[in-house]
Amino acid sequence: MSIVKIDYDPKKNEKNIRERGLSFDRADEFDFTTASFFLVERSGEVRRVAVGYLYKRLHVLVYQRRSGGMWVISFRKAKIKEARKYGKPKTID
User: Fold this and answer.
1) What CATH number has the domain bearing residue 79?
2) pLDDT at 1 over 50
């Protein structure tokens, strides 16, 4: 269970589930300790991008910080090019 509140547009989440098979709720499981971070500006707002692991698969999470949590904008599996650039060996316990 996350200590960070995860919020999002429910319609956008439904679309993400249909098209990518991934719910924004799973951002709770994203491993931020494995992530590379950068900021992007779009439509006059700054968005945070984290490229890290959701279990053994590299993912890209785009979000904004909100009071008490995060607003998920996009969540998807990393593309091959992103995996080559940001992927890191992960130790299996």
Assistant:
1) 3.10.450.530
2) no
